[in-house]
From TrEMBL:
<feature type="binding site">
    <location>
        <position position="53"/>
    </location>
    <ligand>
        <name>substrate</name>
    </ligand>
</feature>
<feature type="binding site">
    <location>
        <begin position="198"/>
        <end position="200"/>
    </location>
    <ligand>
        <name>NAD(+)</name>
    </ligand>
</feature>
<comment type="function">
    <text>NAD-dependent lysine deacetylase and desuccinylase that specifically removes acetyl and succinyl groups on target proteins. Modulates the activities of several proteins which are inactive in their acylated form.</text>
</comment>
<keyword id="KW-0378">Hydrolase</keyword>
<keyword id="KW-0479">Metal-binding</keyword>
<keyword id="KW-0808">Transferase</keyword>
<keyword id="KW-0963">Cytoplasm</keyword>
<dbReference type="InterPro" id="IPR050134">
    <property type="entry name" value="NAD-dep_sirtuin_deacylases"/>
</dbReference>
<feature type="binding site">
    <location>
        <position position="133"/>
    </location>
    <ligand>
        <name>Zn(2+)</name>
    </ligand>
</feature>
<comment type="similarity">
    <text>Belongs to the sirtuin family. Class III subfamily.</text>
</comment>
<feature type="binding site">
    <location>
        <begin position="88"/>
        <end position="91"/>
    </location>
    <ligand>
        <name>NAD(+)</name>
    </ligand>
</feature>
<dbReference type="GO" id="GO:0070403">
    <property type="term" value="F:NAD+ binding"/>
</dbReference>
<keyword id="KW-0520">NAD</keyword>
<feature type="binding site">
    <location>
        <position position="216"/>
    </location>
    <ligand>
        <name>NAD(+)</name>
    </ligand>
</feature>
<feature type="binding site">
    <location>
        <position position="117"/>
    </location>
    <ligand>
        <name>Zn(2+)</name>
    </ligand>
</feature>
<dbReference type="InterPro" id="IPR026590">
    <property type="entry name" value="Ssirtuin_cat_dom"/>
</dbReference>
<feature type="binding site">
    <location>
        <position position="136"/>
    </location>
    <ligand>
        <name>Zn(2+)</name>
    </ligand>
</feature>
C-alpha cells in the first residue's frame, strides 16, 4: 500500500498548449501580476481581470489532456494505495484525463464566486464586472482563483496528506511560489521519498531525493509505469 501526493504546476499543461508563467514569453512576461492577479488589481480594473481570465478560460476549455495527465489518472486507477493530486493549475486537464482525487489549491477557471457574499457557482465562459451575484445581487463576481496575497485553498487537507505520504512527486513547477514550494520539505520531514519531474531543474531541485528532467509527456508516463510495476 503506497500513498502518493503529486504537486503539479503549469509545466504539466504546457504540452496541451496552455502557457506557463515564468518561462520565456510566459504569462507574467505578457501581463503585470499586480494588474491581473491581485485583489487590488481587481478592485482597480475588474474588466481587465475578467478579460484576462475569460481568455484563459476559453483556451483551457479547448485544451486536451496530454500523456502526463493521462498517466496520472492511470496511476490513480491502478495503484495499490492512494494518489492525491494537488494542482496549482486552474485548468481542468487532470479531471478531463480521468483523475478524481484532485485539489485545486489556486482555484479553478470553471468556478466563480462573489467578492461580497462569498457565494460560489460554476463560472460561465465569459464573465463581466456587471454580472450580478445570484446570492446578494451585488455586481462583485470574480473568478474563483487565488490571487497573490490570498490564502490558497485546502491547506489543512494538503498538510495532512503530506504527513502520510510515502512518495511526493513535483511535476512542472518552478518552485518559485509558496506554500507549494515548501511541500517537498514537509514531505521529506515525514520520511517521504521525494521526486522532481520537470523540464529543467526548478528552484528547489536540490531538496528532492531524486530528479528527472525532460518533457512531462515523456518522463511522467515512464515514472508511472515504473511505479505500477514496482
Ligand atoms: N514538461 C515539464 N515541465 C515543463 C514543461 C514541460 N513540457 N514546460 C515547462 N516546464 C516547467 C518549467 O521548466 C518550469 O519549471 O514548468 C515550470 C513552470 O513554472 P511556472 O511558469 O513558474 O509555473 P508554476 O510553477 O505552475 O507557477 C506557480 O505561480 O503565478 C503563480 O498562480 C500561479 O500557479 C502559479 C504559480
Amino acid at each position: 500500500m503506497t500513498n502518493i501526493v503529486i504537486l503539479t504546476g503549469a509545466g504539466i499543461s504546457a504540452e496541451s498548449g496552455l502557457g506557463t508563467f515564468r518561462d520565456e514569453g510566459g504569462l507574467w512576461a505578457q501581463h503585470r501580476i499586480e494588474d491581473v492577479a491581485t485583489p487590488e488589481g481587481f478592485a482597480r480594473n475588474p474588466q481587465l481581470v475578467h478579460d484576462f481570465y475569460n481568455a484563459r478560460r476559453a483556451q483551457a476549455a479547448k485544451a486536451k489532456p496530454n500523456a502526463a495527465h493521462v498517466a496520472l489518472a492511470k496511476l490513480e486507477q491502478n495503484l495499490d494505495g492512494e494518489v492525491l493530486i494537488v494542482t496549482q493549475n486552474v485548468d481542468s486537464l487532470h479531471e478531463k484525463a480521468g483523475s478524481k482525487n484532485v485539489l485545486h489549491m489556486h482555484g479553478a477557471l470553471n468556478k466563480a464566486c462573489c467578492a461580497a457574499c462569498d457565494l460560489r457557482w460554476d463560472a460561465p465562459m465569459v464573465m463581466s464586472p456587471s454580472d450580478p451575484c445570484a446570492g446578494c445581487d451585488t455586481p462583485a463576481t470574480r473568478p474563483e482563483v487565488v490571487w497573490f496575497g490570498e490564502m490558497p485553498f485546502h491547506m489543512e487537507e494538503i498538510g495532512l496528506a503530506l504527513s502520510k505520504a510515502d512518495v511526493f512527486v513535483s511535476i512542472g513547477t518552478s518552485g518559485e511560489v509558496y506554500p507549494a514550494a515548501n511541500f517537498v520539505a514537509e514531505a521529506d520531514h515525514f520520511g517521504a521519498h521525494t521526486i522532481e519531474l520537470n523540464l529543467e531543474p526548478s528552484a528547489g531541485a536540490s531538496r528532492f531525493s531524486e530528479c528527472r528532467f525532460g518533457p512531462a509527456s515523456s518522463i511522467v508516463p515512464k515514472w508511472v509505469e515504473e511505479e505500477l510495476n514496482r
